[in-house]
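User: Fold this, then the next.

Assistant: Folding the first:
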Amino acid sequence: MVLILSRSDLEHVLNIREVIDVLEQAFKEYAMGKTIAPTRLSLLVQKYEGWLGIMPAYIEELGALSTKLVTVYGKNPTMNKNLPTTMASIILNDPETGQALSFMDGGLITAMRTGALGGLAAKILSRKDARTVGIFGAGIQARTQILALEEVRDITLVRVFDPFTDRAKKFAREMNERTGIEFQVCDSSSDAVKESDIVVTVSTSKEPVFDGGLLREGTHINAFGNFKPTERELDDECVRRSKVFVDQREAALDEAGDLIIPIESGVITREHVLAELGELVIGSKNGRIHGSDITLFKSVGLGIQDCATASLAYRRALETGRGTQISLD
């Protein structure tokens, strides 16, 4: 029997605090060599400006084996209004037998694990007294980013910038009602950056979304929105001024235009990437040293994030009786 978990099922069984914790465990195992996480296989569907990624992963101590299929179609919000930009599905297998255990919606898993990873990175790298957030983007991933940051820091104010003002206003209103945090919609990107302790990018922009020269000392940046080699959300000045950390060095230097472009132009070198997140989790590398450090965490997304979160969702679904069991025979 295979357990089918819909988005509704996942909303009932997952909470962001538990996802942060399971990701911390997954990255600890990754740093200790107890995971298998091949670099993502991807292809472009140029006719429709789409992208497909295939992300397998195995986490030994969690006993989790999964494969995620994810698509990113930037035109969906405007051309296909009923469809989101990012869609995904995840298959969870028994690592001992290979048997399929569960098929689940990957969209919510992706949003939850991405937000939770931002929370984990901020827990390790941001100043403990960080209170204000500037966020670029107002979609579902922006929501989970804020929920995760709320778990690790005492956030009192969030400044939102999105080119679609109505979407930003809706996001601000809904998140204020959900969290009690004050939200302000910004008219310019500079307003979202210059007074923020934590800056988050979860946009679909192909070009830098703010002026890195406006970052004040002590800021932490979580960059999640773009992972294509020829595109970026961060400008040269932001990257140059920052201590840079990544989820996986090989993947980031192969996929992240935020890093590739300034490396190719000579603004930074590959050595500007100081450590992987797993190395920070186990304490083998240092993160923030001084309160004045500007720290940057760039994520391109790893299969172990989906694997750990899907495994957690499956366990919680079995415990609570959520989902639909079907036979493939």
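Now the next one, as you asked:
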Amino acid sequence: MKKNIFLSIMCAALSLPSLSAQTNAQWRGEQRNGIYNETGLLKVWPANGPQLLWKFEGLGEGHTSVAIANGKIYINGMHGDKLILYVFDMTGKLLTQKEIGKEWNRNHNGTRSSVCINDGKLYIFNALGTLFCLDETTLQEIWRKDVYKDFGGREIMWGLTENPLIVGDKIFLTPGGSTHNMVALDKKSGALIWTSRGKGLLSSYCSPLYISDQQVPLIVTWMGAVNGRGRGNPNDNEFVGFHAETGEFLWSITLPSQNTINPNTPIYSDGLIFVSTGYSGGSWLLRLKEGGKAIEQVWHNDADNAHHGPVKVGNYVYSTGQNNRGFRCIDWKTGKTIYRQVNIAQSSMIYADGMLYVYSETGKMNLIKPNPDKFELISSFDIPLGDGPHWAHPVIHNGVLYIRHGNALMAYKIN
């Protein structure tokens, strides 16, 4: 079984523009697009890489990334079948660790979804379908929901890997049930605010995105085949949109692929949505119409990013391929591949201060300048610690680059 079959299980920290008054640390940066608003970062690294400030070995199995708020670092891992939350101070000192519940140990063992920190609470979603809400200060459980028992959710092959999305007082989840396909819960109590039947499709490993600038506010995400098999027919993948306030199912569009594993959170800009998946599916640019109540395809490109997170910089998208290998620069407007560098493996990618941070599955951390005219690899170094696949997405916070490799967490000074 190829290692790329397991998709999307890496998760970091977040925040949405409309929630800037709150602490809201979540998956792939402020808008879930892999962009970190840092300045003063190194433009070239020393030959052996930037300074390693501290390290911790003992996280257990997992692919999640750090979430940081109020001077503390949160990350989860698995020992045996136990989900463990670790809390560090900013110097890397372990402040506490706590068993939260059970975690996935059936295939590609370990944690999938990262901690989300919002308004004084921690939200932790395990691959077994339980969402835990904890007090940020005391770590005491406030409430929990089991999407299988409470909402008729249906299990998928590699476990649920969604990073729950918080907007205002709502937390959005995709149980993938035939009745409760997507739900919105009250973030304080866990009470059901709305539920939508959608098209009755399964959750598809995707962490959804909130879009606020259309006539209707939207939650958009990937959904997969009803039968839940790892490989599906070309019509098994649907990209779908829900009304964020009411749960009304608004539209879907079929995007063919050889599999029904679609972990990448879409990228949104000015009425256009970029989506990408692996297994020769490729990438698409979609256009919202009628104020968000309809959608159409603009272009398709064969850049099949599996679960590594493309990044948009200016009018270009930078992405790495799975079956169609290589690092690519793609024109956002036309879908044309400007260039393709084949010696860069699949990589979890983020952006900060004019540079791309490209963490490849071969264990190499690359610093690449996003240049539509030519490929520019500036610096590289090998990740020295950890075990298992290099799948966790990096995080940058206050001039420090955080990299998780299985059992190990490393903090590098990059300013």
